[in-house]
Design brief:
Domain Type II secretion system protein GspF: 149-278
Strand content: under 5%
Distance between the termini: 55 Å
Largest sheet: none
Helix content: over 70%
Number of helices: 12
Keywords: Cell membrane, Membrane, Transmembrane, Transmembrane helix
Protein name: Type II secretion system protein
InterPro entries: T2SS_GspF_dom
Shape: flat
Organism: Paenibacillus agricola
Radius of gyration: 27 Å
Order of helices and strands: HHHHHHHHHHHH
Length: 287
């Protein structure tokens, strides 16, 4: 097992030294997306040498779709590549780590088997984590959208134009970067401030969010903002009512999920209390 560990380390160090110059630029440029970044050149070389992206195009496409929803179209391709690099880097560390543990504990075959199983499940676990992040982002957007629509209705009723109302929603909110919806809307406000097309900015905003309710809000806004007045306000009020009902449903779902997560701790506490209460009685009976 020690010989196998030495061979693995020698192969990794040799390959890393050979390919470092060719792939170090990418790993340094996107260092914040890569962990561990020092193994990234070797993982990039493995991707190119074995043509991994060509062998599993459907899986790559699914990851790219998640990255598009999480980070937008501009960096989706890079984030997808970094995600694959991370998986390969972790797999390399698992190989070396399982071999090292097998040598230390003298259970080489078992630890290698455990390492192989972990390597098989690792891509699935990381993919599920991405899907969970995207779901949370969309859920947070749905929670923030009704409040934003209400603010726009109030500002338009007060005489503001739609563009200025959107910009005020961003200016008056101190937690813009903490909200995925408001952070995307901040991009729209910036584009409007540099005289970009309002229609084009809102369409891009809709694509970046990728949520059906946001698409409905964008469509309603674009269809009525030129007319303004009562038609726009009435359309937004109707939309606001629908969104608040959606928010209530999400809040109810979150409450049910929270209560279901408390079942196991409550059962565990109940068992502990039963043991504490019953143990003295059982000891007295034995005496």
């Amino acid at each position: 097992m020690l010989i196998l560990l030495v061979v693995e380390l020698l192969v990794m160090v040799t390959l890393l030294a050979r390919v470092y110059r060719s792939y170090s630029h990418f790993s340094k440029e996107y260092q914040s997306y890569l962990n561990p970044y020092w193994l990234a050149p070797l993982s990039l070389w493995l991707i190119d040498y074995f043509r991994i992206t060509d062998r599993i195009p459907e899986s790559i496409s699914n990851v790219h779709h998640l990255m598009f929803g999480l980070h937008g179209s501009k960096v989706a391709v890079v984030r997808t590549k970094c995600f694959i690099v991370q998986i390969l880097s972790f797999c390399l560390l698992i190989i070396v780590g399982s071999t090292l543990l097998g040598w230390v504990t003298e259970t080489g075959a078992e630890m290698l088997a455990y390492g192989g199983g972990l390597m098989l499940f690792l891509p699935f676990l990381m993919y599920k984590n991405l899907a969970s992040q995207l779901q949370k982002k969309k859920r947070q957007m749905l929670l923030d959208l009704p409040e934003m629509v209400n603010q726009i209705v109030l500002l338009v009723n007060a005489g503001e134009s739609v563009q200025k109302a959107l910009m005020r929603c961003i200016e008056r909110n101190p937690n813009v970067m903490k909200s995925p919806l408001l952070s995307e809307l901040a991009v729209v406000a910036y584009e409007i401030s540099i005289n970009a097309s309002f229609t084009k900015s809102m369409e891009d905003f809709n694509k970046r969010c990728g949520v059906q309710e946001v698409s409905l809000f964008t469509t309603t806004l674009l269809l009525n903002y030129k007319r303004g007045g009562d038609e726009l306000v009435m359309s937004l009020k109707e939309l606001s009512f629908t969104l608040w009902e959606k928010r209530k449903a999400i809040a109810k779902t979150l409450g049910e999920e929270a209560s279901s997560k408390m079942v196991f701790p409550m059962v565990f506490i109940f068992l502990v209390v039963m043991v504490v209460v019953a143990a003295p009685a059982i000891l007295m009976m034995e005496q």
